[in-house]
Amino acid sequence: MKILLSGTRAPVTRDLVRAFAACSHEVHGADSLATASTARELNSFTRLAPPAQNFAGFARDAQALVARLKPDLIVPLCEDIFWWAKAAQGWPLFAPDLKSLMQLHSKFDFVVLADCLGLPVPETRRLGPADRATPGDWVYKPEFSRFGRRVVIRPQQAPPLAHDPKNPWLQQAWIAGEDVCFHAVAHGGRLGAFAAYRSSWRTKGGASYYFDPVETELSRALEAMAVRLAASLNLTAQLACDLRRDKDGRLWLIECNPRATSGLHLMAHDPAALSAAFTGGGDATLRSDGQAACVGPAMWFYGLRTNRLASWRMDIGRARDVFRGVAGAAVSDTLGFSVRAALAGQDLQDFLTADMACDRDLTCS
């Protein structure tokens, strides 16, 4: 097969390219940002217009690329998935239709969907222009957002929230407990790959850079949720969810990312099975082998600053560095993007997502 990966700035690009290449697939890449650390193993790379800032240009670039490559499968890895779905003209996207994508992406609509399926969710409501935030055991966040950006957790005073009709604020009950996540790859409503994990290593913005598989019993409970979600929508897609596990062990679905997340790193030990999860060639469900994974440069840059040296040594010693062999290129990418972010007056996370971030319902425009 000829496979096109887009959003190749994502670190999971390396693991997917290796998985597809191991099965003799031809892998090409596309993105509006070029990264040395993930592009070197691609058959080709094409620069696209930034979809969130120039959708018309992106749509033209995507159409020309698809016409030239004639890929058998297109796998968007980042929030470019929403723009690909909006631009698609019968293309072989590894994604559901735009309406289903937006239902999963909306932190409100997803909670409604999960509740209808009988899955536990916190009390959640969408705030209108006349609504005011209140202090207490609440979480406030935009309906469309990522990496915990702009989230207000358990405010002691009422936070000022500027209303945006295209991206309103949500008020969600805070659940005491621990964060857990899962990543699933579904094909025709059936799970082809699944991994559940937690992380105690995060940036201040909330982005994880260490991915530690959970114990078997908890993984099974989380997988049952993923199975219900995938089957109910007959999904051919990636499905990544954030949850809270309370003191009684009950799991609460918080939000969903219908795109690649770092949980994919926990499936890289079996390249053939990971490839089959996307191409539909496997019958079994690939699961984690129990080894943790980490973004090595981030463990050194962010992790050492936390002054948890004993834990740092133990955790980095038992994890697979997803940038092993290309650490120099990854550091070079980060330094280059950091300079560009500073010149643009943005922090690094915002810079790396602004050109493709989907902060509204694309079915309404």
UniProtKB/TrEMBL annotation:
Keywords: ATP-binding, Nucleotide-binding. SUPFAM superfamilies: Glutathione synthetase ATP-binding domain-like (SSF56059). Pfam families: ATP-grasp_3. One of its GO terms (molecular function) is ATP binding. Residues 111-287 form the ATP-grasp domain. PROSITE patterns: ATP_GRASP, CPSASE_2. It comes from the Bacteria. This is ATP-grasp domain protein. It comes from Asticcacaulis biprosthecium C19.
